[in-house]
């Protein structure tokens, strides 16, 4: 579909609306044409599941440094004073203080697999 055709279709779909009415972008001819000839593809690998496959970085001090370099991730200093797994807000990397590891293992918030530690999906840090 050419750009001018898509624009005219979009404008036609909004002409009939009264002031104050809302039309969702998932309604109307543009969204319906998206999967006319092909089946909708859905990736089975959800980000929420993939993030738990990353091992936890064990830190000796009370501060973890994450980021920097050419990737655009700013340098973040993460506070590890509390006995919980800390997640970098940019990369999603997990950090934990070495002294808190034993408590987290006993509580079930962290588990060990092949010499690496991983965050449990079932137990949150707030418990």
UniProtKB/TrEMBL annotation:
GO terms for cellular component: mitochondrion; respiratory chain complex I. Pfam families: zf-CHCC. Gene3D superfamilies: q5lls5 like domains. InterPro entries: Znf_CHCC. Signal peptide: none annotated. Residues 67-91 form the Zinc finger CHCC-type domain. One of its GO terms (biological process) is mitochondrial electron transport, NADH to ubiquinone. PANTHER family: NADH DEHYDROGENASE [UBIQUINONE] IRON-SULFUR PROTEIN 6, MITOCHONDRIAL (PTHR13156:SF0), NADH-UBIQUINONE OXIDOREDUCTASE 13 KD-A SUBUNIT (PTHR13156). This is Zinc finger CHCC-type domain-containing protein.
């Amino acid at each position: 579909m050419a750009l001018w055709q898509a624009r005219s279709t979009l404008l036609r779909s909004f002409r009939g609306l009264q002031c104050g009415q809302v039309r969702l972008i998932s309604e109307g001819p543009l969204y319906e044409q998206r999967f006319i000839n092909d089946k909708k593809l859905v990736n089975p690998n959800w980000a929420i599941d993939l993030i738990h496959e990353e091992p936890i970085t064990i830190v000796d001090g009370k501060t973890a440094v994450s980021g920097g370099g050419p990737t655009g991730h700013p340098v973040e200093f993460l506070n590890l004073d509390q006995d919980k797994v800390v997640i970098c807000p940019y990369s999603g990397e997990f950090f934990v203080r070495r002294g808190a590891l034993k408590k987290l293992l006993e509580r079930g918030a962290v588990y060990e697999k092949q010499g690496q530690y991983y965050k449990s999906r079932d137990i949150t840090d707030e418990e």
